[in-house]
Amino acid sequence: AADYLPKPFNISHLLLKVEKILQARRNKADRKKLSNLVRILNLSQAMNTKLDIKSLTNEFLSQVQKNFAPDGVVLFLEEQTGLQPKVTRGPLLRTSPRLNAWVKRLGERIFRQQLPELIMCKDKHAGPAKSEGCPPEAAITSVIATPIAIRMSNIGVVVLLRCNSKPDYNREQLQLLNVFAAHTASAFENA
Q: By the 8 A CB rule, do 58 and 66 touch?
């Protein structure tokens, strides 16, 4: 229910109310799109001031923390020995070897497949169709992961974990993380 209609109601009055509600929804959606655009521009501006890989990595993780509020973050980068975790943040990741192993397998799969992924774990018994399923920690309710690629060649993966104390990640946030990763890859290439 978005508004009240007096009885008996007039059809033209109903149409005006519906149009007003639809316009309000369109305005809200436009503001959200603009907000995401501002986030991307802020990331680009911040990344352009960094000249070395270490400061770019730190800035990327700072922007991820600010824009996605994850409870855990793992940044994997490709090395000669394969995909390696370069940065791991979050208390669950520091205390759970099983969770770290699960995140490593997920990162390797995302790296191979070159596709971002959203994993929802509200109902752990149902579980997603993916081979990794849900993480072993019961507190984790959603995960987003995306490759970091330069000219169709992956250089890394970023994985974000969210616990039940915050709203779950959604497809829009996965898309935004994917754009953040693309901007970061471009900055890495130019460093």
A: no
Question: What residues contact residue 131 under an 8 Å CB cut-off, 6+ apart?
Answer: 109
Rg, Å, the chain Cα set: 20
Instruction: Please list, in sequence order, all residues whose beta carbon lies within 8 angstroms of the beta carbon of residue 183, skipping any fewer than 6 positions away.
Output: 40, 43, 44, 47
In which region does residue 7 sit, left (phi positive, over 0), alpha (psi from -120 to 50) or beta (all else)? beta
Tens digit of each residue's pLDDT (9 = 90 or more) over 26-71: 777 766 666 666 667 676 776 666 678 888 888 889 889 988 999 9
Angstrom distances, CA of residue 68 to CA of 42, 79, 142, 152: 14, 27, 12, 25
pTM equals: 0.74
| Dihedrals phi, psi of 77, to nearest 5 degrees | -130, 145
